[in-house]
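C-alpha cells please, single chain.
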Amino acid sequence: MRQQIGVLLQVLVLMYLPLLVGFNLWFKMPLILMPALTIVAIGLFSLGQRLRTK
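Here you go.
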C-alpha cells in the first residue's frame, strides 16, 4: 500500500511541475512563489521515494 501511495505521489508531482510553470507564465504569479512551490514539490517527491523504498 505504501508503494502505491509513493508512486501516486511521485506521478502527481511530475504532472504538477509543468502545470505550475504554465500557470506562472499565463497568470503572472509573484516570482517568489515559483521557487517556493518547487521546493515543496521536491519534498513531496522525496517523500514518495521514501514510501516506495520501505
